[in-house]
Structure formats: C-alpha cells, structure tokens
Amino acid sequence: MCVSFEPSGEGRPQTGTRGKIDYREVLDEADFAVYARLRSLRKEMSDAEGVPVYSLFTNEQMAEMVTRRVTSANALHEIAGVGSSRMKKYSAPFLKVLAEAFAVGDARAVGSGDET
Prior knowledge:
single chain
C-alpha cells in the first residue's frame, strides 16, 4: 500500500464547481467592489486592444492587488506574474483605480507613499 498526501490548500480561496474561484464569496463587500472595478477596466482595455482579458492581469492577480491594498508600482510588481511588460503597458490605469479605492488613510494600503 502506498499513501501520498496532497497539500490541503489551507489559506487558499475556495473554488466553485468548475474549479473557478468566486471572489464575491472570498472578498468582503468593499474589496469585491474594488475588484469589480478592476475587472471592468480590464474588460474595456482588452476589448480596445483585441486581446484576452487574462493577458492584462488574471483574476488572481487582481484579487491580490485588492487584498494587498496595492497603490504603487513597486507593490504591483511584487505580485507573481506581473512582469515589466505588463507594468509598462497596463499598470497606470489599474494603479489609479487602486489609489482612489485605497486612499492614504487606509492603514492596510501597501506602498501608498511610493512613487508610481
């Protein structure tokens, strides 16, 4: 008999029936509102460029932007998969939405004093 263990996934968001995460259930109401604004922005930008939405940022990356309270280019660049190319092309409008959502008064904001 051979027994193996898979990581339990503790601390990870729960997935739905199709393996997709429902961020409405994972994020609190205020955070989901910011996440929804990011999704709308991503959709507008991807439609304008004729590229898939995930080529800008993935749902997971946007959720991490929200939960980390990202407000600077440095903090955004620390998210896995956000490289220089995405930073150059897409960071400014996303950082603007995030900065508006997480005003300097939010103690949880990451990099709120950094230059973008």
